[in-house]
Known about the structure:
The protein is an alpha/beta fold. The protein has helices at about 30-35, 100-110, 130, and strands at about 40-45, 55-60, 65-70, 85-90, 115-120.
Amino acid sequence: MRGATKDLGRLGLQCCSYTRACKGGGMTRKDVAKIVNKAKGIRLDVGAGNNCQEGFVGMDKRDLPGIEIVHDVECFPWPLPDECCLMIVCSHLYEHIKPWLSIDFMNELWRILRVGSQLALSMPYGVNDNYLQDPTHINPSNFNTFH
């Protein structure tokens, strides 16, 4: 049931229930079954929206087709077990993260990545025309941000 708090502790998962501070969603049993298969791990598309990559588990705060985990990425911790991801892609989401949550966001990516896994972040170079044209871009970054 989406939006419901479930007791998933025995599976090593946490669910964020709807609260005023953090609007998150629960997971269906099908979602949980896919995620807890730690023997294989998952490939996660964070902030996938309508464009979830093929073969990836989609996570977004909106309940859209192809999204398996409905959760606000600015609500920590995410409802995923430690070291469950073989690969994470995050395309054009980071620039929308509140700047004061940047470190928490990166720490959460670090927590769910397995040793030797891959992280692919894509974002406009801040501060250029592609960054400035969108009023929802609030977190500029460039090469030195992650160097």
